[in-house]
Amino acid sequence: MDREVIKDIAESGGWRRRLLNRLRHAFQEEERQGLLLAIKVRSISMVVILIWYISDEPSATLAVFFGVSFILMFLILGLFQHFLLTTRNHPAWVPYIFILADCLLLSTQLVTPNPFETETVFSNALSLRGSSFVWYFLFLMQATFSLRPRLVLWCGFSIIATRFGSMMWVLSSPEIFYQIDIPTPTPENLMKLYFDQNFVSIEDRIQEFIAVSLVAIGLAVVTSRTLRFVENRAEAERSRSNLARYFSPNMVDEISLAGGLDRTPREQDIAILFTDIIGFTTYCETEPAENIVTLLREYHNLLSGSVFRYNGTLDKYMGDGLMATFGTPRTGPHDATDALRCALELVENLHEWTQQRARQSEAPLSVGIGLHYGAAVMGDIGNERHVEFAVIGDSVNVASRIEHLTRELDAPLTVSQDLINAIKREDAGGGALIRRLVDTGPQNIRGRKKKIGVWVAPRPATTPE
Questions:
Q1: Contacts of 66 (CB under 8 A, 6+ apart)
Q2: Which of 60, 63, 167, 187 is nearest to 113 (CA)?
Q3: Residues near 393 by beta carbon (within 8 Å), at least 6 away in sequence
Q4: Which residues of the chain does CATH 3.30.70.1230 include?
Q5: For the chain, which has fewer Cβ within 10 Å, the N-terminal or C-terminal residue?
Q6: DSSP string spanning 390-459?
Q7: 268 beta partners
């Protein structure tokens, strides 16, 4: 049974590598689009902040221009990164450099006194306080847009590193202190110390570092889980899509819930159906390729619909032929009965199809169907480059040769006595189905010494135009 679905279920290394490579390329494009979106949001934010800053400080002084210069630098950094990302051939380390540059620029801006501010001069220690620290979380948001866990962690590290560097620069000033040395630690003395503009609270800075670390790790985990979820869903949907090519929808649901096909080699009794377009080789000699492909599509669609409707499995298409099984991958209580119901439905549907083709002046066709029931071996065969889940055994050969009896017996459907016996054992209302058949007695089967009992279905009556 040649099917790529087995590579999915068996988690073949080559298939998984190809899938992961395709997903990786898709994620890289989504990362790029996410970064572009984050840069657009960031640029709009910078413009809004710039407008707010200028409106709050309407006077055109050097102090105002100094503050504006930092906002413009953030805007230029974002636009430059946007330009690099739109080239599609940018190095992978570009986002990491810009994240570090953003954190470095913000840390510098927060602790750099405005040299043109003459009215009020505050200690640099005050720059480490207040709500200005929350701006760093915008960089974490931007990194999260990339769907890249490593970039999120790098952003958290960059925030801590640059913030620590700016704190050490502030502490390098002789008037700045951080050690608490209060003889009487009363609430009043502690408040007085805390509000001293030269005092730096190391404990508060440690809390900032812990908060950034936890948020960065949490966002990285969420991003990683999102990527893993998408990968798993992509693999599951591909497996499910491939399963749907061979199994009925109900069987696909059952196999998916069970975690895939059971790949253990085993032998079990199944019903086997073969179909074949009689005279297809001669037909192909005179018909154009387009007509042949259209014919096979209609033919295969008609066959697969009936096979799936009766819980069958499409084992393989063989050009103008088809092999289907009933009782795979798991046996059911009335596999033989379902197989005969499917075959009788196919006889009717194929007859209507050939009549419709005749009314459209298409070349006449005749389809033979053969049914057999018996033991077959199932399991993986092949090598690491190509794996097939095969249904093999003497019963498969017999089913194929019983189908060929449709030519000798001039019948659209030939059924082995073994399948008739299985239907009787199942006792699933198959008696009425058997009565639609005619017992032709034992027949010679090519390659077998012993004759096999064969039943046939008469040809449906032709509907007059």
A1: 114, 115, 116
A2: 63
A3: 267, 374, 375, 376, 377
A4: 264-457
A5: C
A6: EEESHHHHHHHHHHHHHHHHT-SEEEEHHHHHHHHHHTSS-HHHHTTSEEEEEE--TT-SS-EEEEEEPP
A7: 376
Hey, what amino acid is at 145?
A: F
Give this prediction's pTM.
0.55
Between the alpha carbon of residue 332 and those of residues 121, 299, 320, 345, the distances in Å are: 87, 27, 28, 20
The Cα–Cα gap between 166 and 342 comes to 78
Query: Do the Cβ atoms of 136 and 159 come closer than 8 Å?
Result: yes
Report the distance separating Cα 456 and Cα 406, nearest Å. 8
CA distances from 151 to 3, 130, 318 (A): 40, 27, 51
pLDDT tens, residue by residue, 197-250:
777 878 888 888 999 999 999 999 998 888 787 777 766 666 666 555 555 555
In degrees, rounded to 5, the angle at the alpha carbon of residue 237 between the alpha carbons of residues 233 and 241 is 175
Query: Collapsing DSSP states into helix, strand and coil, what is residue 87?
Result: coil
Taking the C-alpha atoms of residue 404 and residue 165, their distance in angstroms, rounded to an integer, is 85
Distance separating alpha carbons of residues 98 and 460, to the nearest angstrom: 76
On whether the CB atoms of residues 132 and 122 are closer than 8 A, the answer is: no
Report how far residue 106's alpha carbon sits from residue 97's, in angstroms, rounded to the nearest whole number: 14
Per the listing, tokens 């253990």 go with 264
Question: Which class would CATH give 264-457?
Answer: alpha beta
